[in-house]
Design goal:
binds 1,3-dihydroxyacetonephosphate; TIM Barrel
């Protein structure tokens, strides 16, 4: 049985002071609940120190939203995996569709970042997903397959430590969620790809999250699908109640 994992991707929202308040709110609901779910919050970079402090003594883990593949050097504005680790970070979202679309990240770059994250002991949350145009021209399988094979190439046994997030771009921030059936179909495809790239056993270990307008009222149905092992939540992770309700739906 895979442990479900629910992560909040705050994107570019919440100042450090606001992060402290949101985390306190989430903890006031979830601390002490005996819920067998891995819970992660991924605030903006400058919030991480405050967030690590605010999460002390909680079962909730801390994640970042991006990092650079290099260990150090002349990369103005970037941060390394080790810098995140020393800040108390345990997870890192990589290859989010916003980074791919707005900042030109390629599968090769995501792959290099994934390797660097794993080497530093971080759990990479590697995002894949098709655009509306790609779905409507029946290219979903080809696009997602290429992203999975490229972004997760050559990881060996470490593949088992990765989390994959399937986030159809047309469902992100649009209120338009993939149906549980649509999502399950792609999740099953991803798991078949992972088995081809490694072994069936590794593929069965990897958690595959769904992301894209996941809300308290659709989360349970999505996460009840056999290959949906949690959620990567954007908008609904910015309020303690809605994020906690999604976590509870995974319990
Ligand atoms: P929304 O939940 O706001 O659609 O965002 C999903 C997402 O991009 C999480 O990474």
């Amino acid at each position: 049985m895979r442990t479900k994992i629910v992560a909040g991707n705050w994107k570019m929202n919440k100042t450090p002071a606001e992060a402290r308040v949101l985390i306190a709110g989430i903890r006031s609901i979830l601390d002490g609940t005996n819920c067998p779910v891995e819970v992660v919050v991924c605030p903006p970079l400058v919030d991480l120190t405050v967030a690590a402090e605010a999460l002390k003594g909680s079962f909730i883990g801390l994640g970042a939203q991006n990092m650079h593949a290099a260990a150090s050097g002349a990369y103005t504005g970037e941060v390394s995996a080790q810098m995140l680790v020393e800040t108390g970070v345990k997870y890192v979202i990589l290859g989010h569709s916003e980074r791919r679309a707005l900042f030109g990240e390629t599968d090769a770059q995501v792959n290099a970042k994934t390797k660097a994250a794993l080497a530093a002991g971080l759990v990479p949350i590697v995002c894949v997903g098709e655009t509306l145009e790609e779905r409507e021209s029946n290219r979903t399988d080809a696009v997602v397959t290429a992203q999975v094979m490229g972004s997760l190439a050559d990881l060996g046994a470490d593949l088992a430590r990765c989390v994959v997030a399937y986030e159809p771009v047309w469902a992100i921030g649009t209120g338009r969620t993939a149906t549980p059936g649509q999502a399950q179909e792609v999740h099953a495809l991803i798991r078949r790809m992972l088995a081809k790239m490694s072994t069936g056993q590794v593929a069965n270990t990897v958690r595959i999250q769904y992301g894209g307008s996941m809300k308290p009222d659709n989360a349970a149905e999505l996460m009840a699908q056999p290959d949906i092992d949690g959620g990567l939540i954007g908008g609904a992770s910015l309020k303690a109640e809605s994020f906690a309700d999604i976590v509870k739906a995974a319990c």
